[in-house]
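$ ./design --mode recover --in tokens.txt
reading tokens...
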């Protein structure tokens, strides 16, 4: 066993529905602007395809835990998303082959410092501080899955008021295409999560807000934004 100059951090892992073993996370990719109505509300051009960014694996917030309201923002936004969890990988995958790599699905929220993101866009700077901050990715347990991907409703409510309400079938890149597109840019592997983008209705959160999200057939998550 290797010797380390200090104790390495524990592996990031998520619960799996129906079994005791955990799902070990390797990395977290995210799709931007994968629903047309959200692309419009962000001021995007209808001709621009979706794209990728990333969050560190340790940004995940396990089910039942409450993320803190982050520092350095006055405009924290919620983005409810279907999350794909891979059990295998590769590069340059065909969409037909991609679905065979899916271990399961989860419900995630891509928390975003919208003010820092807008400033980064204006200056042509990277999004890491606006997207990949600590505790920026609350997520549900993973539901193991076989067969066609989820297509149903995706919803998020804040303090009981529905803010986002759409259907996963409206994604511009479907799940198979998301995996295939990602594999053109990275060699994917078991343990990779992909947040597949959010529908319209994103908006601000305040400390103390109760957030409840669900994807039909996949599961639900709930958390309170801690002070
Ligand atoms: Mn997002």
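writing sequence...
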């Amino acid at each position: 066993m290797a010797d380390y100059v200090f104790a390495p951090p524990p592996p990031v892992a998520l619960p799996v529905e129906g079994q005791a073993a955990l799902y070990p996370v390797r990395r977290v990719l995210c799709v931007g602007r994968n629903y047309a109505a959200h692309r419009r509300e962000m001021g995007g051009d209808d001709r621009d395809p979706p794209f990728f960014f990333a969050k560190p694996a340790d940004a995940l917030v396990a089910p039942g835990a409450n993320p803190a309201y982050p520092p350095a923002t006055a405009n924290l936004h919620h983005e409810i998303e279907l999350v794909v969890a891979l059990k295998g990988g590769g590069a340059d995958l065909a969409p037909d082959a991609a679905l065979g790599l899916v271990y399961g699905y989860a419900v995630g929220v891509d928390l975003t410092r919208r003010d820092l993101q807008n400033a980064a866009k204006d200056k042509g700077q990277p999004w890491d501080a606006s997207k990949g901050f600590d505790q920026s990715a609350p997520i549900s347990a993973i539901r193991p899955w076989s067969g066609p991907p989820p297509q149903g409703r995706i919803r998020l409510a804040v303090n009981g008021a529905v803010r986002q309400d759409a259907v996963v079938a409206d994604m511009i890149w479907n799940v198979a295409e998301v995996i295939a597109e990602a594999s053109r840019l990275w060699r994917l592997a078991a343990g990779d999560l992909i947040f597949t983008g959010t529908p319209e209705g994103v908006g601000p959160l305040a400390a103390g807000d109760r957030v409840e999200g669900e994807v039909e057939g996949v599961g639900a998550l709930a958390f309170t934004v801690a002070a």
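exit 0
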